[in-house]
Amino acid sequence: MGDFTSITTLDGDGQFDAYVAKPEEAASAAIIVIQEIFGVNEGIRGKCDSWAKAGYVTYAPDLFWRQEPHVELDADVPEDFQTAIGLMQKLNQDQAIRDIEATIKAARAAAGGGKVGLVGYCLGGRLAFMSACRTDGDAFVGYYGVGIDGLLGEQHAIGKPVLLHVPTADHFVLPDAQKAMHQGLADNRHVTLYDYEGLDHGFAAEMGQRRDDAGAELADGRTADFFAEHLA
């Protein structure tokens, strides 16, 4: 359903690829899928294809392009996991947000000037929250975003709806961090958090050992309803 296309950076000094999936009919809204640490792999492309089937033009930018373009790693392969950690540690996240902003610009144009939603997973969940604070997207969803408790000082800049999916047994986002997120965001009228009792990091992956079917279906249904409301 989709293919890769090039996007020019905001500064005009380079280009990076994004996987783009388009619906059969002309889209009036767009969704940006923000990758995990494993790159724009089969699972991320599958999520894009699903959103396209739902009627959205969908982009997944390759955020590791400055290090290594077109990374595709498998979360269930230990060697791939370690490679992914290394890529994440070297990523300039402020620069990644600017690449996401360039993707928003491209996606909005592809949707005829319509609204743009962003949904991210793991690293992408963190970047989705950062995007809510720093970009002009219209709605933001983060699945098991890491380190959001350290970004709470930016939340005053959030002016559009944000949805966060928090698995309570996330071994990368420990209970103290989850508590800080809940307490720190409790008074922010733009932000909604859902807990998923007993589920771990990666529960909504498209495939692989991390996926929990019931949890993924529940969270994905909430995300679909959220975008249907806020991107209309």
UniProtKB/TrEMBL annotation:
Question: InterPro entries recorded for this chain?
Answer: AB_hydrolase_fold (IPR029058), Dienelactn_hydro (IPR002925), Dienelactone_hydrolase-like (IPR051049)
This chain belongs to the protein called Dienelactone hydrolase family protein
The UniProt entry, under PANTHER family, shows: ALPHA_BETA-HYDROLASES SUPERFAMILY PROTEIN (PTHR46623:SF6), CARBOXYMETHYLENEBUTENOLIDASE-RELATED (PTHR46623)
State one molecular function term (GO): hydrolase activity
According to the entry, every stretch annotated as the Dienelactone hydrolase domain falls at 16-230
Q: Which domain of life is it from?
A: Bacteria
This protein's UniProt keywords: Hydrolase
